Fold:
Amino acid sequence: MAMKMRQSLAQLEQEFRHEARRDRSRRESLRRRAVSRSRKRTYERERKRSSVRFWLLVLSLVATAVIVTVAMFETLYRLLG
Structure:
């Protein structure tokens, strides 16, 4: 009877260690996935932000060119007129 009990305790301990290893592995996998998702969201957010900044820069350059051109022709008209 004692031999059988020792064997079942050893088996329980072995199963417990196996389950603990699986839990650790699962937690590490979940952590890696969370880090990956976080990096992906940060990258996407930064990409969108830089895209908006690019278009604001293009718009401001075009607006500046239009304003300077209009002012130049207005000045020429007044000087020659």
In short: The chain has a mean pLDDT of 93.
